[in-house]
Design brief:
elongated
């Protein structure tokens, strides 16, 4: 990767395990070229220090953060849909059994709408991270790397 591209996205990087994943996703989202180079790695020796429960929860939170940072609607839209369907199902059930619209149905439907709108705002904020990425800088043109 080019150092100039990396420096532009440096503020997005977390401390800890996820910086390679985060920078790769940032490059994809920014439209920078990403290449995969096969490498040889020596056989690992020793025992892993990763603990399943403690580090597993931390990895799960990192995945949620990365997803919310780079593609918020993929996170918020399904959640919104789940709450919308729950509200609609509860409304259908209470209407069929008691013939009325309950407060809980209204809460679920309003919450689904709120999640959807939060997702839209988050998507716009996420797009601001990449606002200056497509400047007319020579190293960022589609013909990168340069041919001689």
């Amino acid at each position: 990767m080019r150092a100039s591209h990396f420096r532009r996205l440096l503020y997005l990087l977390p401390n800890g395990f996820s910086y390679p994943t985060t920078i790769t996703m940032a490059f994809f989202r920014s439209g920078f070229p990403v290449g995969y180079v096969p490498i040889r790695a020596a056989q690992r020796s020793g025992k892993s220090h990763i603990r399943l429960l403690q580090d597993g929860v931390r990895f799960f939170v990192i995945i949620l953060k990365i997803g919310a940072l780079f593609s918020p609607m993929r996170f918020f839209l399904p959640l919104s849909g789940v709450f919308f369907l729950a509200g609609l199902s509860l409304y259908g059930y209470t209407y069929a059994t008691t013939g009325r619209f309950t407060n809980m149905s209204a809460v679920l439907l309003i919450y689904s709408l709120s999640l959807f709108l939060i997702g839209l705002v988050s998507e716009q904020i996420s797009a601001l991270h990449y606002k200056g990425v497509d400047d007319n800088e020579p190293s960022m043109r589609p013909d990168w790397p340069r041919r001689k």
